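Researcher: Go.
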Amino acid sequence: MKSTQEILADALAVRDDGAQPRCDAHEYEQCLLALARQDEGLAEDGIAHALARIAAGTNDDANALIFAADRKRDAEAAATVGKSARVEKVVKSASLDAILAEAENVLSKGASPTVTRDAAESAMLDLAVAESLEGEGVCDAYARLCESDARMQKLYALGQAADTAEVERAEQLSKRGTRNERVWELMVKGANHNRLAGETVEQALDRMLRTDKTYQDAYALYCE
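Model: Structure:
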């Protein structure tokens, strides 16, 4: 997976040096979203406004990312014709429909998200591309749809829910790791205390795991 710095460097090379895009259009746009998210944190007026602001302003990095994404899409459009173009459009539409169904399931039924925030935001960008008006850039379409389109708002809410779920899973794993480390520490201390003459701690621990029910239960807890 490319880092934000790598994608941005590639976009600058495309715009300033005439290099061929090495990233996908959605990668440039994900990087643009990352810039908007940083800007949103400063202005606190929402990611749609932040994205529109940096896209319309003098943010050099944002301009390079937009340029590179457009150049990549132009190249793909030139290389994809006829049946292949229709197939690609159908595949993207099916993917977007699946994410929208996921959003409905999470928001209406309280299901746990099965997609990441990045997947939800990629779907938002796909929707902006699909729904952009004549002469309207992707960023402007994105901002417009964030304000008025229920599908875009659901996808944004899905991204927020997925982000929250990921944080909660990380916290649970952290707590589990702390608990397991403590269990193992107590088992080793107990084995050291109950060593027989000539026994190492490892040998004592092995013996107690084979013969002591308390240790067997503790080890089962450690392995959960």
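Model: The CA atoms of residues 135 and 141 lie 10 Å apart.
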